Each structure stands twice: as C-alpha cells, then as structure tokens.
Amino acid sequence: MANKLEGKKIAILVEEGFEQVELTKPLQALKDEGAEAHIISPNKNSEIKAWNHTEWGDKFTVDKKLSDVKAEDYNGLLLPGGVMNPDNLRANKEAVSFVNKFMESGKPVAAICHAPWTLIETGKLKGKKMTSYHTLKTDLKNAGAEWVDQEVVVDQGLVTSRNPDDIPAFNKKMIEEFAEGKHDRS
User: Fold this and answer.
1) Which end of the chain, C or N, has fewer beta carbons within 10 A?
2) Does 134 participate in catalysis according to the annotation?
3) What count of other Cβ atoms lies within 10 Å of the Cβ of residue 133?
C-alpha cells in the first residue's frame, strides 16, 4: 500500500523554544507516511533548541533557513507550539509572510498548542473554527475565530489541537489534510 504523503514536501517552521514532542511526533508521522519534511527556521544558527515540558530539551538541526525557501515549494505547513516559539515567530515579518502564503493559497496548515499565535498575525482567521492551548482562547476570538475546546478541529484544511495529549488525533487529521491538498478558504 502506498504511503499517503509520498511525493509531498512539508515545511515545519520553528524558532528556539518549540515544544519538543510537538515537533518529533508529527515529524515521525509525516515521515512514516512518506513525506519529505524540512525543519525551517529564521534563526541564524544551524541548530535550534527545543523546550521539553518545563526545561530546555534537545537540539535539532535546521534543514533550511527561512530566507532560502519559498512557500510555493511546499504542499503543507506544520507549526509546533511551545510558548517561546510562536511568540518569536509572530514577531518576525518574514515568518508571518511565509505562513500567510500558505493561508492565502489554501494549502493545509497544522498548528498545535500555542502555534495559532503565529496564525493570528496573518489576519486570516475570521470565521475559522479552531482550538488551541486554552490560554489563547481570547486571542483567537479577538482575531475572529470561533474557539472550541476539542482535541482536534479541522476547518478548510486548517488543523488545530490543544496540547501534546492531543497529538495522536492531531497527527491523524494532519496527514488526512496534507494528503487531500489545497482547500478553498474564501
């Protein structure tokens, strides 16, 4: 049986302080389904450090610098959470522009935990049904999203989950949406 994501390229956008398990488990799920996945970062270092629950985690090699890639070259985008990671990404114009191109194109985007902070900066969440870590509820509502407390929510190729406990459901829906491809988000 063919892998669901064979021939698909997935961008994983991260900065220092991403939640380790929110990168490692989805990355493994993507690879298991045959996707080519690249860890992309605006960070100038060739390695970035994860956050592992309550302390610094492992270092991960950056496959591509954000300045060297184009959203057009990828079929989907994964945004791991952690508090520091999306807070740094949403303050980076180049990162927000990269994410915005996925939102505008209708390509699937999967964001877990605090990652929707970066999505808010695109201005493209009005009317979207989403979930996130509970502390982002007001931020998402203020951005025009309908926030719900569910382990995984899918709205026109936008996949969101609340926290690491939701990763099995998140991975399943992420793979489905990445396999399906572009969606009309108008």
Assistant:
1) N
2) no
3) 20
Q: Of the listed 38, 114, 134, 183, which one is catalytic?
A: 114
pTM of the model: 0.96
Cα 185 to Cα 8, 109, 152, 156: the distances in Å are: 21, 12, 19, 6
Q: What are the structure tokens assigned to 79, written together? A: 């945004």
d(C-alpha 158, C-alpha 23), whole Å: 17
Q: Are the C-beta atoms of residues 75 and 50 closer than 8 Å to each other? A: no
Catalytic status, residue 113: yes
Query: What mean pLDDT do residues 156-168 have?
Result: 97
State the CB neighbour count (10 A cutoff) for residue 123.
Answer: 12
Choice among 38, 53, 113, 183 that is catalytic: 113
